[in-house]
Amino acid sequence: MISPKKSTRNVQIQRFRDGRAGGRRDVVTVEEPLEIRIEVAENGGRVEHAVAVTMRTPGDDFELAAGFLFTEGILADRADVADLRYCRDAEPQEYNIVSVRLRDPGAFDESLLTRNFYTTSSCGVCGKASLEAVEVRGCAPLPDGGPTVSPEVVCAIPETIRASQSVFDRTGGIHAAGLFDERGGLQLLREDIGRHNAVDKVIGHAFLEGGLPLSAHFLAVSGRSSFEIIQKALAAGIPMVAAVGAPSSLAVDLARRFNMTLVGFAKPDGFNVYTGGERIAAPPP
């Protein structure tokens, strides 16, 4: 699904090089709000409730909405969704609001709309409460097994992601999340100004296609790995997350608690394994 809005924009800049200044045009990544609404039954009719607003790069907005609602525990199955659409009468935010209509809005638990989301880095909830919140939502440790990935595949991740980032090529300022098979084949890549949005787009695509859980795949992200990214991967049944950057302490704790493999600092010459090393194939002697 392609957004009617563009993901990049041309701007006029002054460029300083070698002591000289000159005017030119540059390309920047678009960052705009996306409001996610869900349509529920209320007072004998249907009412839209705003669930969240996220700053995102336009593109694959329906995937982003579906992925967010799934990883936050509001949607459970593709069959729950009757329709996704833009609210086009919402000037001046046309194409910045996505409404999700449920097949059976009367069965939806509206209390989920008012619960505290523990997954944002700025929410101020302690680490112990964050981990317990994941368990309360019904997430269980992932089973042993899943993909066994060779060190060569992990080392190739940065270049594989970079080679597929079309928006990054033009702007140099956007994150990516990629879904890989155990041989290192890139199955899907999404870009966004927010790394967590890129992950939601990947998971949302699988959700809308009926492809969950993603137990035979691993997720790779272009930046660091946070609690939020590990939580989203866990919800999608992804047993391994590899990041080009560093993990946070809570990401390590969550991955360890739920039997996930967490790799950081993936580079062509090596990487670090923080948890779940059994999913990394031992190099030959």
Provide an overview of this structure.
With 285 residues, the protein is an alpha/beta fold. The protein folds into two domains: 32-134, Ubiquitin-like (UB roll) (Roll); 151-279, Cytidine Deaminase, domain 2, CATH 3.40.140.10. It is 25% helix and 32% strand. It has helices at residues 61-71, 127-136, 151-163, 166-171, 195-208, 227-235, 249-257; strands at residues 8-17, 20-29, 32-42, 45-56, 81-86, 97-102, 175-181, 186-192, 217-221, 240-243, 261-267, 270-275. The strands form three sheets. A six-stranded mixed sheet has the order 8-7-9-10-11-12. Strands 4-3-6-5 form a four-stranded mixed sheet, with helices on one face. The protein has a two-stranded antiparallel ribbon with strand order 1-2. Helix 1 crosses helix 5 and helix 6 (227-235) packs parallel to helix 7. The termini are far apart.
List descriptors.
2 domains; Cytidine Deaminase, domain 2; single chain; 285 residues
How does the SSE layout of this entry go?
Elements: E1 8-17, E2 20-29, E3 32-42, E4 45-56, H1 61-71, E5 81-86, E6 97-102, H2 127-136, H3 151-163, H4 166-171, E7 175-181, E8 186-192, H5 195-208, E9 217-221, H6 227-235, E10 240-243, H7 249-257, E11 261-267, E12 270-275
Parallel strand pairs: 3-6, 9-10, 10-11
Antiparallel strand pairs: 1-2, 3-4, 5-6, 7-8, 7-9, 11-12
Helix pairs in contact: 1-5, 5-6, 6-7
